[in-house]
Design a protein that fits this description.
The protein has four helices and two strands; from the N terminus they run ααββαα. It is mainly alpha-helical. Helix 1 runs antiparallel to helix 4 and helix 2 crosses helix 4. The protein is globular. The protein starts with 15 loop residues before the first helix and ends with a helix.
């Protein structure tokens, strides 16, 4: 996700819809953790804020999975126990939780 192109980077004032869109189109190959921007966001941003990362998914696909360390998550991802779509949806949800207070503050401080 390059910052030189705003449509390819997560910005602090992005809406939930924008974040979901950007995360969904990001490179995230099945089972590959090297150079995977979604895993990097999870490792450096989400696990920095949260002690637990919960991948929510339907029971028919194995149900929810909880991770208490990045290494556990990375191992399961590399073993194809987590689908990229599930990883992206979960990362989007956590990013929105992290960004929401700042986005709300900026929205209230900046006149329309």
């Amino acid at each position: 996700m390059s910052k030189s192109n705003p449509s390819n980077s997560i910005l602090i004032h992005d809406s939930e819809k924008d974040i979901l869109y950007k995360i969904n189109k990001a490179y995230c190959p099945l089972g590959i953790s090297a150079n995977n921007p979604i895993l990097e966001i999870i490792k450096h941003v989400i696990f920095h804020q949260y002690d637990e990362f919960i991948v929510e998914r339907p029971v028919k696909y194995g149900g929810n999975m909880s991770y208490y360390s990045y290494n556990e998550l990375q191992k399961d991802y590399e073993q194809n126990k987590i689908h990229p779509k599930d990883l992206k949806m979960t990362a989007s949800r956590y990013l929105n939780e992290i960004i929401s207070p700042v986005r709300d503050y900026l929205h209230n401080e900046i006149p329309d």
